[in-house]
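Format notes (please read before filing issues)

Several people have asked whether sequences and structure tokens are stored in separate files. They are not. Every record keeps both together, in the order shown below: the sequence lines, then the token lines. Line labels are part of the format and must not be stripped during preprocessing.
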Amino acid sequence: MSIFDKLNPVRTMEKIESKQIEKGQSVAMWESGKKTANLFDLNDHSVVLNGYNSNPFVYSAVNRIATLMASIPIKAQKLVKEKSFHKYKSLSWAEKSTREGYKLKEESFEDIPNSAIQDLLDNPNKEEGAREFRFNQYVNKLVTGNMFVEGLQPTDSRPPIELWNLPPLAVSINKSQDFYDKILEIYFNWGQTQKTIPKEKILHSRLYNPDGSVWGLSPLSAARRSVQMLNDGDEWNAALLQNGAKPEYVLIVAPGTPQSEKEKLKKRFRDNYTGPKNASKDPLVIDEDFMKFEALGYTVKDMDWQNSQLTSMRKVYDVYGVSSEIFNDPENKTMANKKEAVRSMYTDRILPEVETVVDEYQRWLVPKFGDENIFLTLDLTGVDALNEEKDKVADRMAKSWWLTPNEKRAEMDYEALDNELFNEPWMQLNQLPLSEIMMEPEATEDEVKELIKEYSLNGKSN
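Then the structure lines:
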């Protein structure tokens, strides 16, 4: 067995059952039947096991993105000004997160009291809260390229009362041969729960797959080589460290050496030279007529392992559309500061993806509640990285002494104060209204003489 066989062991995949339905073709995300696979086979569970579950960089990127996405609540609102809404929708997320963007959004919508759809979004099911539910659905999509949400309805004519995330690994799709109506129904198989679900009761959001598949394309498909290099590098480095940083070797003995002597020599090397317990021991010296030691592998320095790991790590983050600077990459400082990098991640990666999922909910969930005027929006009030724009406005207003306090409050989206003093500019020197600044008039000639006289009298008394 070569060293490459050791790094890429052949293993047999367990059969995954998928139901065959006569009117179409059932397709599981992970193909059924026994097969062999390398360390990172996208056609089996290793896309999760060797990607998300085992690779620290994939896990870190997915969890960080999903956590930030899940921190943005979804609100059910009523459209009140269509013109402002269309203008707001045309903005980029960098523009939407400015004061002008917030103002357009506030003009477009108003909250709906006692909303049934809002209650469902806030309490999706008995096992998950709203934030955990959102986090799980985003992880599913970021890892596998697919997320499935089932809406449980009391009857077909009533809206859902619960929403459940279905693990993509447990889902099969009964697809048709019709390009314009690809999915017939969903088959779900998880433990003792086995059922066929009508497609109308499933929200399937997926990352675009250019081959036209009913399945979304996992980001790990594009990153698989970098992920495999990271996994292989970690295993190789761990094994090397356990062996005292000694590479694989070969012992060359004199021709004609009996097999029994070879075996004794190998055992003495294993007992005295290999393994973590022997890492600090003195070199083994054997008195033989002829013996030569040759290394088979490269040293850590020769492999340039650290730089190779950094390169692969950055490729993984690139695939997920985030800067490695955010994940404490010491050598990648391409932005002015980390705050700008985080803000860029929100406007370029987080918000566009969340908006895509919300649009899917708008298409699938809202019509079930029978109100066409309901719009699902994102509540960005709790996103500190985007509130930096407000900090900039506040700093600008603090320097604009010629504006009235109420004008400054309006610029910051606060209500005006019912006080006349706040409707006139305040002087920068003492921060007082102009009307309150009392200027002493110049003294008259008689007043000056009276002051001199009074001063003289006081001087004599002293």
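For reference, the curators noted about this record: Residues 224-302 form one domain. The radius of gyration is 35 Å.
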